[in-house]
Amino acid sequence: MNKTEKSLTKEEVKDQATKHGQKLGILISALDISDEEREAWLSIIDKMSLEQIDRLIDILESKYVHQKTSNLDKKLKEEMEKIQKEYEEKIDEVDQKAIDKIKKLSKKIENHE
Fold first, then answer.
1. Which residues contact 34 (CB under 8 A, 6 or more apart)?
2. Which pTM was predicted?
3. Which residue among 20, 61, 62, 83 is buried most deeply as judged by most CB within 10 Å?
4. Residue 66, class by beta-carbon neighbours within 10 Å (0-12 exposed, 13-18 middle, 19+ buried)?
5. Cα separations (Å) of 39 from 15, 42, 45, 51?
6. What is the tally of structural domains in the chain?
7. What span, in angstroms and rounded, lies between the C-alpha atoms of 39 and 50?
């Protein structure tokens, strides 16, 4: 915020309050929280200053981002584990083929001696 609350005009305060209200409404409805928690947030908002509401918005945005990305982290981890398993299986397969070829070559050498 460029201006402090004290230096804002009534129109600017009203405009900010409207924007903050819309943003808070979207965030609170989008969060994966209980109805009780949602009601608790809604009941204290009208007692907060614009600065406190700014901080609350930051906290709720952070919580929202965390909720949305934690699932992505889980999916990424699962995908990485799948790739690692496939890689290890392929290495085992290549190793086994190499061992088989070495055994065949050893037998040929033994038979020629």
1. none
2. 0.55
3. 20
4. exposed
5. 24, 5, 10, 21
6. 1
7. 19
Nearest CA to 24 out of 9, 38, 34 is that of: 38
Domain assignment of residue 102, given as a range = 8-112
**Residue 1: which H helix or E strand, with range?**
none
Phi, psi of 47 (to 5 degrees): -95, 0
Task: Kindly state whether residue 12 falls inside one of the protein's structural domains.
Answer: yes
pLDDT digit string (tens) for 77-104?
999 999 999 999 999 999 999 999 999 9
Q: For 62-71, what is each residue's pLDDT tens digit?
A: 999 988 888 8
Indicate the Cα dihedral angle 53, 58, 62, 65, nearest 10°: 90
The backbone region for 8, taken as left when phi is positive above 0, alpha when psi lies in -120 to 50, beta otherwise, is beta
